[in-house]
Amino acid sequence: MAVTRWQEDPTRDHWGSFCYIRDTATGTFWSNTAQPAPKRPDRYTAVFTEGRAEFHRQDRVEDSLIETRTEIVVSPEDDIELRRMRLINRSGERRTLEVTSYAEVVLAPPVADALHPAFSKLFVQTEIVRASEPCCARAGLGRTANSRAGYFT
Fold first, then answer.
1. Residue 98 and residue 87: Cα distance in Å, rounded?
2. Where are the domains of the chain?
């Protein structure tokens, strides 16, 4: 079962889950990794080990230096991926930052999604259950025995 849409593409990095960070005072935005936002960081490193990827970047926004650290861990036993992002303000000024995450929810077998990606999108519904609860995504027609659900926090 594919939770989100992703395909390996050696020439483009346009599939997957992304986070965008925006400074509300200046409107400057960047992503937590090298893609998809075009802003070049002042400093960037990526470290890949078995079951783990770490991305570190520093971005200058006016006179402030913002450090973004992202860790992605994949369990060897279960079909689960955990992501953690930390934002560190390295200047003495207060900054207000907005974080927006993006993933194209599929909730279908990869073969079915590859054959009919537009059809898969027709039946995905999302909702916030409560303010303190995760986002719920449901695929299928209504709440039938064949419907599938995913929860994102």
1. 11
2. 17-102, 105-152
Number of H helices, E strands in the chain: 2, 12
Q: Which two tokens stand for residue 91?
A: 């200047």
Give 96-143 pLDDT, tens digit per residue. Answer: 999 988 877 777 777 877 777 777 666 666 666 666 666 666 666 555
Q: Which residues partner with 60 through β-bridges?
A: 65
Q: Specify the DSSP element, H or E, that contains 111.
A: helix 110-115
Do the Cβ atoms of 108 and 120 come closer than 8 Å?
A: yes
Name residue, tokens 């990869």. Answer: 110
Contact 5, 121 (CB under 8 A): no
